[in-house]
Amino acid sequence: MTTQVAAVEVIRVVSSEKAVRGRSLWRDAFYRLKKDRIAIFCLSVVGLYSLIALAAKFGWIASPWDKVVGAPYLAPSLDSIELFLGTDIFGRSVFYKVIQGTRIAMSVGLVSSLISIPIGVFFGALAGYFRGWVDDLIVWFYTTVSSIPNIMLLIAIAFIMGKGITSIYVALGITAWVSLARVIRGEFIKHKSREYVLAAESLGAGHASRIFKHILPNVSHFIIINLSIQFMSAIKSEVILSFLGLGVQGQPSWGVMIDDARLELSRGVWWQLAGATVAMFFVVLAFNILGDSLRDSLDPKIK
Amino acid sequence: MAVASETQSVEKILEIKNLKTSFFSDEGEVRAVDDVSFNVFKGRTLGIVGESGCGKSVTSLSIMRLIPDPPGRIVGGEILYQGKDLLKLDLASMRAIRGNKISMIFQEPMTSLNPVFTIGNQIREAIGLHQNLSRKDIQDKAVEMIQLVGIPSPEKRVSDYPHQLSGGMRQRVMIAMALSCNPHVLIADEPTTALDVTIQAQILELLQKLQQKVGMGLILITHDLGVVSEVADEVVVMYAGRVVEQGSVAEIFKHPKMPYTRGLLNSIPTLSKDPTGKIKKKRLETIPGIVPNMLHLPQGCRFQDRCTYVLDSCREREPELRIIAQDSEMPHAIRCARDI
Q: Which tens digit of pLDDT belongs to each residue from A48-77?
């Protein structure tokens, strides 16, 4: 009797599985990603940083950050949350500054990616799809851009546009698209000769439809993988630029904090450096691992 | 279907005249299709046969104007559809014909579908490109097309992704897409080559059934003469970019005149029995030699080096395509100097 019941159960399970809607490749990729525990952990870390950044943005936490909470250079203590990482030269809470730095780092990553990804996708798609002189021109252009040392270009743009967060957004945005454009161009070359594209053409689809409706969805996972890496390198670049004094002004970015720490370290004040570095370390590491895992789950063939 | 009704007059829907398509490589010009002419009739099937690289697929891609340019280009000839030369149309008008009036299905069902969209999505797109229908009508039509090509439970399958279907099912989806706008001509470029034999038969049967239903002209490109003898009404045999023999299927299979066609027919394995009932053990014949290098074609007949009937004159001058019997809409014609 019980076996009969079990059999019925099995049949029910099988038939309900059959009734499931078509399984898209995205869903497959998501299942693969879900099995990867480290990736999920990293995704949570990234999510946590994003939440902190959002909360700081709306002033729910760590605000106001420039309030004097104690004597200058108080060592970290567990007395209050403000003094968790001690105070800086003006007696402001280092912990609050780290949180505000998170906001700036995440916004730089997001905005610069939003600028660079459309540029990279657009140029890469055009070059790979049309080939010929369009390809020559675009490849020449991005080879030229990438042959200029990145940090010099960033410095030049920051100088032209004036110091500040906007110029960092723009500078990172318009220098970082080259690697994505390369990848997208290569994928377009590969996909353009695939039969499904020819089939679409034989059904009367035009250029725009073939580029955006047919090929782009097939290469879009590269955009997501690139986003993760792009985000991470933008955060690093912002820190470097701010450290060089070209970055954010009057706001507590991690780079500015590390720059300040240069003079403080000799006095034994290590907490400002430690706070900014550790915060940056975790988010950069999380993005790095996440980028790898995304590649594994979205493009399992190259694993 | 192979028997054309005598009383009914057949209507020409596609006329290919002196089509020439070349590919320009660093080493020189390859004339992949060289002066090819044939007609496609309404409701009838034309088989184009020949070995790999003889220009079958290039002919079909030329009709659709899908030759990748560069390196390829149609350098001459006319493709007349309803009196209009397709080669003179601008790209927008050509797009309106592709998939709508003239459709094509490809050899590889595994790669011809876009992997990231459901099959319903792709069929809907094919319909939406050419027909001004409401969303609901398009959806209904897509389900109807899936049903038409014999895929079970179409309402469910419509939301499947290509990787969830077998090769035969995917080819059915391709056929559904190609037929969704009721084309007048369907070009099937080796539609069954990638499929196993039982599925092959099903797909051919399906194509025939649908052809009778909608009355389109079918161009069937294949290297499988068995398929041609079963399905086609007329046959064009191509060799190294040239038409070497053409005619009705009965004529070609009964009285092949060109040595190349004979060679092709002889290289089909047969299972005939001798009078005592034993299966005859006949050695399978092959055509000796290989296809000539298309960059350096020999002077004279292109088949000369592989031909057992070769004459000295064959090496000097290439014979013209000459008509030897006016027996049907497609007169039996051969490109051969000899009468064998």
A: 999 999 999 888 887 777 778 778 878 788
Classify residue A27 by its DSSP letter: H
Do the beta carbons of residue A234 and residue A165 sit within 8 Å? no
CB A125 within 8 A of CB A215: yes
- Residue A293 structure tokens: 């895992």
Residue B318: closest CA among B296, B333, B334, B302: B302
pLDDT tens digits, one per residue of A148-157: 887 788 788 8
CA distance A246 to B160: 53
> Does the ipTM surpass 0.85?
no
- Sort residue A9 into left (φ over 0), alpha (ψ -120 to 50) or beta: alpha
Q: Does A190 touch chain B (CB under 8 A)?
A: no
Q: pTM, whole model, 2 decimals?
A: 0.76
B contacts of A202 (beta carbons < 8 Å): 64, 66, 98-99, 103-104, 106
pLDDT in tens, B197-234: 887 888 888 888 888 887 888 999 988 888 888 888 89
Q: How far apart are CA B93 and CA B100, in angstroms?
A: 11
CB B338 within 8 A of CB B311: yes
How far, in Å, CA of A26 to CA of A220, rounded? 10
The predicted model gives B6-18 an average pLDDT of 76
DSSP single-letter state for residue B285: P
On the question of pLDDT at B4 being above 80, the answer is no
With tokens 């809907």, the residue in question is B124
**Residue B227: its H or E element:** helix B225-231
**Look-up: residue for tokens 């149609």?**
B74
Partner residue opposite B95 with nearest CB, options A198, A204, A213: A204
What span, in angstroms and rounded, lies between the C-alpha atoms of A59 and B28? 71
Spacing of C-alpha B320 from chain mean position: 23
Q: Which two three-digit tokens encode residue B143?
A: 């389900």
Q: Is the peptide bond before B70 cis (omega within 30 degrees of 0)?
A: yes
Q: Residue B152: what pLDDT?
A: 86
- In chain B, which residues have their Cβ closer than 8 Å to the Cβ of A206? 95
B130 to chain A, any CB pair closer than 8 A? The answer is: yes
- Residue found under tokens 């399905």: B231
Backbone angles phi, psi at B313, to 5 degrees: -65, -25
Which of A196, A197, A198 would best serve as a mutation to test chain B binding (most B beta carbons within 10 A)? A196
pLDDT tens profile A109-129: 999 999 999 999 999 999 999
Question: Any idea what DSSP says for residue B68?
Answer: -
What secondary structure letter does DSSP report for A93?
Answer: B
Q: How far is B179 from chain A (nearest CA, A)?
A: 10
Minimum CA–CA partner of A27 in chain B: B116
